UniProtKB/TrEMBL annotation:
This protein's encoding gene: Nop58
Protein's recorded name: Nucleolar protein 58
Chief location category: nucleus
PROSITE patterns (UniProt xref): NOP
The Nop domain, residue ranges: 285-403
Listed GO MF terms: snoRNA binding
Length: 513
């Protein structure tokens, strides 16, 4: 007889006992035994039933079961069963959980396709096997525990830590904008007092540190800034401070400028700390994406898509154009060329190529990046080997485009491709010396004779054409005259016929003697 542990997604747990083991051998037809509650009660019956005290206890038991661990309640129940029915076997749906039960309680467990079919049948007839529970209450308990379990998974899921990356990269961009505004204001403000310092010191952070330490430009001669500036630049600053054309400012103005410099230095230090944090988080969550395009570009891609999982759903063509949506739709609307890259343009592999090959490299980089994103989002491995291999392939392709070499890209990109021996098939062309002569090939007399003959031919043709035109015009003029004569003759004939018809008949004359 099999004993079956079954954990129902609700606020209770129960144990079922198998009554007829022979019918379990036919796995394909086992579903027929669970078509009705009456048939199901002939196969299994309720052995033990226990209710959880509250939602927390049910949530703890369900999470332990999902993770393949042995909860306290399950351990107590199984110990009671082992004490009573030690010879029985336990059918479990999770092989990992069965191994834990066998190790801790020394209870034989079974996991097979038959057990899975049995679980499916019990799930379909659970209301008939456990009496006294209305269907509405059971559905409410299932829904409540499902919501609690979902909240627990979302709270502790490592996939949701990418929200930290989104917030960090957004804050990093905001800090860059604020730093630029603060530094521009500091240079412009202190430039009224010492304008030459801005041209000598180009680094913004060094400029603010120098202004904070010295203050008024008259103090440069007596102050030591060797810990901030090199010796050559320090001498130039001191020499420029003596002959500066800046205006004099009060001590209160200098204090406000120094306070602004303190803000710039603090924000710069915090930005460096935030960048290190972002770098570590990216290597922990998306190591392959970080290897392919870098921390900043990878974080911006995740932030633009909303999450790492959403980014994994995008095809390579979308990854290539993320961040260039406005340019894409503008090009489609105006029927012009579409953009070739978006945020991926800032990747180091695209930046180190020439302008001619940027489109090809960005397309290949986007294809490999899409693979690494899916590997990071859906894979269980946390190593960056796949990203390193794909980056090597892109770099090999980049060298091939730049050097026009004959190395192949497939595999590791180290082997030389087999090529045929080059044979020159150029055609030999003979020089035509006739093009070098500037003298006319025909004499002048012959040319004049030809011109005269041509003129005579033209004159004869013109005369013939005029004669033909005259003949045509005369024919056209004669035709209407002939027609008129014919009409007149016809009219005369008609009149004569009428006169003859009108004359009376004459009687024959008789001579009288």
């Amino acid at each position: 007889v099999f004993l079956l542990w079954w954990f129902f997604i609700g606020f209770f747990s129960f144990l079922l006992q198998v009554l007829n083991e022979k019918k379990l051998q036919e796995v394909d037809s086992l579903w027929k035994e669970f078509e009705t509650p009456e048939k199901a009660n002939k196969i299994v019956k309720l052995k033990h039933f226990e209710k959880f005290q509250d939602t927390t206890e049910a949530l703890a038991a369900s999470t332990a079961l999902v993770e393949g661990k042995l909860s306290k309640n399950l351990k107590k129940i199984l110990k009671k069963i082992v004490a009573k029915d030690a010879h029985e076997q336990l059918a479990v749906a999770d092989a990992k959980l069965g191994g834990v039960i066998k190790d801790k309680l020394n209870l034989s467990c079974i996991h097979s396709p038959m057990v899975i079919e049995l679980m499916r049948g019990i799930r379909s007839q659970i209301e008939g096997l456990i009496t006294g529970l209305p269907a509405r209450e059971m559905a409410a308990m299932c829904l409540g525990l499902a919501h609690s379990l979902s909240r627990y998974k979302l709270k502790f899921s490592p996939d949701k830590v990418d929200t930290m990356i989104i917030q960090a990269i957004s804050l990093l961009d905001d800090l860059d904008k604020e730093l630029n505004n603060y530094i521009m204001r500091c240079r412009e403000w202190y430039g009224w007092h010492f304008p030459e310092l801005g041209k000598i010191i180009t680094d913004n952070l060094t400029y603010c540190k120098c202004v904070r330490k010295v203050g008024d430009r008259s103090n440069f001669a007596s102050s030591d800034v060797s810990d901030i500036l090199p010796e050559e630049i320090e001498e130039d600053v001191k020499a420029a401070a003596e002959i500066s054309m800046g205006t004099e400012v009060s001590e209160e103005d200098i204090n406000n400028i120094i306070h602004l410099c303190d803000q710039v230095i603090e924000i710069s230090e915090y930005r460096t700390q935030l960048y290190d944090y972002l770098k570590n988080r990216m290597m922990a969550i998306a190591p392959n994406l970080t290897v392919m395009v870098g921390e900043l570009v990878g974080a911006r891609l995740i932030a633009h898509a909303g999450s790492l999982l959403n980014l994994a759903k995008h095809p390579a063509s979308t990854v290539q154009l993320l961040g260039a949506e406005k340019a894409l739709f503008r090009a489609l609307k105006t029927k012009r060329d579409t953009p070739k890259f978006g945020l991926i343009y800032h990747a180091s592999l695209v930046g180190q190529t020439n302008a001619k090959n940027k489109g090809k490299i960005s397309r290949m980089l986007a294809a490999k990046t899409a693979l690494t994103i899916r590997y990071d989002a859906l894979g269980e491995d946390t190593s960056a080997e796949m990203g390193a291999e794909n980056r090597l392939k892109v770099e090999t392709r980049l060298r091939l485009l730049e050097e026009r070499g004959i190395r192949r890209i497939s595999g590791t990109g180290k082997a030389l491709a087999k090529t045929d021996k080059y044979q020159n098939k150029s055609e030999v062309k003979v020089f035509d010396p006739s093009g070098d002569s500037t003298l006319p090939a025909v004499s002048k007399k012959r040319k004049i004779q030809e011109m005269e003959e041509q003129d005579t031919e033209v004159v004869v043709k013109a005369k013939k054409f005029k004669a033909e035109m005259k003949e045509e015009t005369t024919k056209e003029d004669d035709e209407p005259v002939k027609k008129r004569k014919k009409k007149k003759d016809k009219a005369k004939q008609a009149e004569e016929e009428e006169l003859l018809s009108e004359e009376p008949p004459t009687s024959p004359t008789v001579e009288v003697r």
